Amino acid sequence: MKFLELNHKMRVVSFLLFLISGWSIAACYLPDTFKAADKAVLISDVSLPKSEWTVFNLWAAWCAPCRAELPILDKVAQSEKHPFTIFALNLNDGEAVAKEIFGDLKIEHLAPMSTAETDLLSKLDVIGLPYTAILYQQKIIAEKNGILNANDISAIDAFINCYKGNQ
After folding, report:
1. In the chain, how many domains are there?
2. CB 82 within 8 A of CB 157
3. Where is each Thioredoxin domain found (predicted)?
4. Cis previous bond, 130, omega within 30
5. Among residues 102, 96, 41, which one has the least CA distance to residue 71?
6. How many other C-beta atoms can be found within 10 angstroms of the C-beta atom of residue 154?
7. What are 148-161's pLDDT values in tens digits?
8. What CATH number is attached to the domain comprising 124?
9. CA distance from start to end of the chain
10. What 3-state DSSP class applies to 112?
11. Cα separation, 102 vs 22, whole angstroms
């Protein structure tokens, strides 16, 4: 059954990437903790970096797991070895609060961005925070609810590098 789930996950993501870019991929597996997006949702409500690949993260001040993963995201943002850009977006706390939290956690490589778009969660069909999505050309292709870890980051690297190698 696990094989069928992985096969389905790969087919869905391959299909989404084919629709978005016109390229197909062979055997590029998503990280185990991510699920393929049901459809390629374009993130247009926020100003994303102009990057082909983005790891998009939603967090809030009240969310302890969110605060725990921010240093992980910051460390990734510091490194130039990853084939993606990190974009962490605070929900509803404001940039001043985000900046204060970044100071407390010694976050130096992420911008303290915040949005008051409360309907962003419902638009993206997010069930909880932290929420992380892999974006290709600003469209969601895979997503995860829950904290990221080093294995997730390595798996995201492998997935994107595999895709780039198959173009």
Report:
1. 1
2. yes
3. 19-167
4. yes
5. 102
6. 12
7. 998 999 999 999 99
8. 3.40.30.10
9. 30
10. coil
11. 39
> What's the length of the chain?
167
Give the pair of three-digit tokens for residue 133: 């999505």
Burial profile 70-86: b = 16 or more Cβ within 10 angstroms, e = fewer: bebbbebbeeeebebbb
Q: Is 145 left (phi over 0), alpha (psi -120 to 50) or beta?
A: beta
Structure-block tokens of residue 35? 């699920």
- The whole model's pTM is what? 0.82
Q: Per residue in 124-133, pLDDT tens? A: 889 899 999 9
| Tokens at 91, concatenated | 């929900």
**CA 115/CA 133 separation, integer angstroms:** 17
Quick one: DSSP state of residue 72? Answer: H
The residue range of the domain holding 66 is 2-165
